[in-house]
Amino acid sequence: MTNVLEVAAAVMQRSDGEFLLAERPVGKPYAGWWEFPGGKIEAGESPYHALVRELHEELGIDVDVAHPWLTRVYTYPHAKVRLHFFRVVSWHGEPHGKENQRLSWQYPGAVNVTPLLPANGPVLRSLNLPPVCAITHAAELGVEPFMERLQAALQQGVKLIQVREKAMDAATLRAFSAEVVRQAHAYGARVVINSDTALAREVGADGVQLNSAQLMALAARPEVELVGASCHDRQELERVVELELDFALLSPVLPTQSHPGAPALGWEGFARLVRDLPMPVYALGGVSRADMDEAWQHGAHGIAMLRGAWQA
């Protein structure tokens, strides 16, 4: 059986979204290739404590706040590695290469250093996903008032929208979806259509959001750019992994207005279900922007909101 090398890796991010890459130093495998900083987890050491130690040894910084994020396994010719990624959002000191390695701050979607270690490709794609997924709510607000709220949300920086309007007839939904896509794309935001891959293609959306029944019935990933899935348990989350989808929504985290008596996962339950998954998971159900730090602390990529996304 192949031994797995356990590694802690840091996505060090500034407030403007820039993140740090480091060049592997001479004398190490893949010298000259770029990667997220970090290093081997020693025996008896937790991934978090390994991260703190490695960043101090390699970059001369002290970590203040680091949130668990993704865990990805990759097989190189020389080793099979399990990478425990953390998003490091606060630290003391100015990062510098203590092993004479070069450092470079980069923006998601605009990385200009090469070559990158191949294990990092999916991680960079995940970094392109914003912290908020906004789910449309025109049925309650009305289409015209919703469009006003949409414009305001886009102006305030919303970058990912799920069109989910189960009460609309097909013609109204088609027109509504096309207009959401038109407005979103004008602001560089992306749109996924709930449950309907054909409609997503028809209106020029960026992808589709599968419901849990579709997720479990599918044999292969739909052929669109961006695919998410709505999940409620670990089995469904693991199906997302098998199909190599881009992200998941996990619910309900907290009690919701629409299902006030339904059992909720709670933050500890959410953290238990998303632990060691390789893709971003959004927390959905009863959450608001005020819960973002709590979500990050428990392994979420961010939060997904229905009513809270469109509050005036």
UniProtKB/TrEMBL annotation:
Signal peptide: none annotated. GO terms for molecular function: 8-oxo-7,8-dihydrodeoxyguanosine triphosphate pyrophosphatase activity; 8-oxo-7,8-dihydroguanosine triphosphate pyrophosphatase activity; 8-oxo-dGDP phosphatase activity; 8-oxo-GDP phosphatase activity; metal ion binding. It is an enzyme of class 3 (hydrolase). Its EC number is 3.6.1.55. It catalyses: 8-oxo-GTP + H2O = 8-oxo-GMP + diphosphate + H(+); 8-oxo-dGTP + H2O = 8-oxo-dGMP + diphosphate + H(+). GO terms for biological process: DNA repair; DNA replication; thiamine biosynthetic process. Residues 2-131 form the Nudix hydrolase domain. Keywords: DNA damage, DNA repair, DNA replication, Hydrolase, Magnesium, Metal-binding, Mutator protein. Its cofactor is Mg(2+). Belongs to the Nudix hydrolase family. This is 8-oxo-dGTP diphosphatase.
